[in-house]
């Protein structure tokens, strides 16, 4: 990890949607795509978790392609992925690190292990190097 973490802003409505999706999917992991810029997430799009294992995730590739097409010409882009850890913390697992195939992506992990206090972590994962991002909730940002 680097010594000086970068900051990512996430719209407050997106934070609520991430936590809701994680709670609804538990005890399975949920997943989806993040839309905005590398510094500001303004929308999340829930996708099917096509991995049959309950404590792993895989975004439906067809949903990823469809969202990329939908965003063409809008000035917005898919900039990351999110998933939940219903029984653990927000640190990326070895599988999360090993399967981080898009180096430009922001990886957001939602922990709902403590129902009353969900936790959100954000990372950049490049070539096995995990850099934690500081998450700032943006109360003025839009959400999906």
Question: Care to describe what's here?
Answer:
The chain is of the alpha/beta class and 144 residues long. Helix content is 21%, strand content 37%. It has helices spanning 12-25, 61-71, 94-98, and strands spanning 7-11, 31-37, 40-47, 77-85, 106-111, 119-126, 129-138. The relative contact order is 0.27. The model has no long low-confidence stretch (mean pLDDT 92).
Structural class: alpha/beta
**What is the helix fraction of residues, given as a range?**
10-25%
State the end-to-end distance: 31 Å
Beta-strand content: 35-45%
Q: Which architecture would the CATH scheme give at its second level?
A: 3-Layer(aba) Sandwich
Largest β-sheet summary: 7 strands, mixed, barrel
CATH superfamily: Cytidine Deaminase, domain 2
The geometry reads as globular
CATH class: Alpha Beta
Strand order of the largest sheet: 1-3-2-4-5-6-7
Number of domains: 1
Can you tell me the residue ranges where pLDDT is under 50 for at least 5 consecutive residues? none
* pLDDT averaged over residues: 92
Number of E strands:
7
DSSP helix count? Answer: 3
Query: H/E series, N to C?
Result: EHEEHEHEEE
Spatial extent as radius of gyration: 14 Å
The CATH topology assignment is Cytidine Deaminase, domain 2
């Amino acid at each position: 990890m680097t010594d000086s973490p970068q900051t990512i802003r996430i719209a407050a409505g997106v934070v609520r949607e991430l936590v809701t999706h994680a709670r609804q999917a538990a005890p399975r992991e949920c997943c989806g795509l993040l839309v905005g810029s590398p510094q500001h997430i303004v929308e999340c799009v829930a996708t099917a978790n096509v991995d049959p294992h309950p404590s792993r995730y895989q975004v439906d590739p067809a949903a990823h392609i469809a969202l990329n097409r939908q965003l063409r010409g809008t000035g917005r882009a898919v900039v990351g992925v999110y998933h939940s850890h219903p029984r653990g913390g927000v640190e990326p697992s070895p599988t999360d690190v090993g399967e981080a195939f898009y180096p430009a992506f922001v990886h957001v992990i939602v922990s709902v292990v403590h129902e009353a206090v969900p936790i959100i972590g954000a990372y950049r994962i490049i070539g096995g190097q995990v850099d934690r991002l500081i998450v700032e909730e943006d109360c003025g940002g839009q959400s999906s």
